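Students often ask why inverse folding is considered easier than folding. One informal answer: many sequences map to the same fold, so there is more than one right answer. In these notes we will look at a single instance of the problem. The structure comes first.
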């Protein structure tokens, strides 16, 4: 408990969000926004960009994964590279998944997204080098998990039966909003991490923070798998 309390408030807040029941909506859309998406038609760039940004800054799984990705990145050049890889993966499957009609089970894809948080936390803890004697390519992993994150949102958009009129430009605007929201969220995370890194506790608490990050990822995975099993039992 003492170790937990010594973590920066921003880091604690991001990890606590993963323990809330509302985490099942990490890739969902609020009921009011859902109704809006189902009713509108035509090219509406600004509203869709706003909804994309809103999704990102309230997407707990996205934020937790980003925390893991930038945890030990100190140079802006490296941060930019990994965030770009994630954005490319996210954009490809968001646009391709909706326009190409790709459908997957939302519980299973969100479970994989939760696992991405677990994977990155273990990576930060040096688990793979200890277990397998080598470090996986973190750039490739970031890109691949970005693909899954985008596919998760594409799956939700399919469920809302958005009007095909103006769909392509609206999706592009939505994705632009997602990336803008990602930059905003990333800025807040970097501020919190930068503050923590300047303290003497960072080196001592970094491992424990990633254990908590991993635990949050397992909560995400368990929540989604439980939903999948319930869904199967009633189908």
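Output (designed amino acids):
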């Amino acid at each position: 408990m003492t170790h937990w309390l010594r973590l920066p408030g921003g880091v604690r807040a991001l990890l606590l969000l993963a323990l809330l029941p509302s985490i099942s909506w990490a890739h969902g859309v609020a009921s009011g926004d859902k109704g809006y998406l189902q009713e509108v038609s035509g090219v509406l760039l600004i509203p869709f960009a706003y909804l994309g940004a809103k999704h990102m800054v309230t997407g707990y799984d996205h934020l937790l994964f980003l925390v893991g990705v930038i945890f030990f990145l100190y140079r802006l050049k490296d941060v930019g590279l990994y965030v770009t890889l994630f954005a490319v993966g996210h954009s490809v499957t968001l646009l391709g998944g909706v326009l190409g009609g790709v459908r997957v089970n939302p519980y299973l894809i969100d479970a994989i997204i939760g696992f991405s948080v677990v994977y990155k936390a273990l990576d930060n803890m040096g688990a793979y080098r200890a277990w397998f004697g080598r470090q996986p390519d973190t750039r490739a992993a970031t890109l691949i998990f970005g693909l899954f994150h985008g596919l998760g949102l594409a799956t939700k958009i399919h469920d809302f039966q958005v009007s095909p009129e103006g769909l392509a430009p609206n999706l592009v605007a939505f994705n632009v909003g997602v990336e803008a929201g990602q930059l905003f969220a990333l800025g807040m995370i970097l501020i919190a991490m930068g503050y923590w890194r300047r303290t003497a506790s960072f080196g001592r608490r970094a491992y424990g923070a990633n254990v908590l990050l991993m635990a949050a990822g397992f909560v995400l995975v368990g929540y989604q798998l439980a939903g999948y099993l319930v869904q199967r039992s009633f189908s």
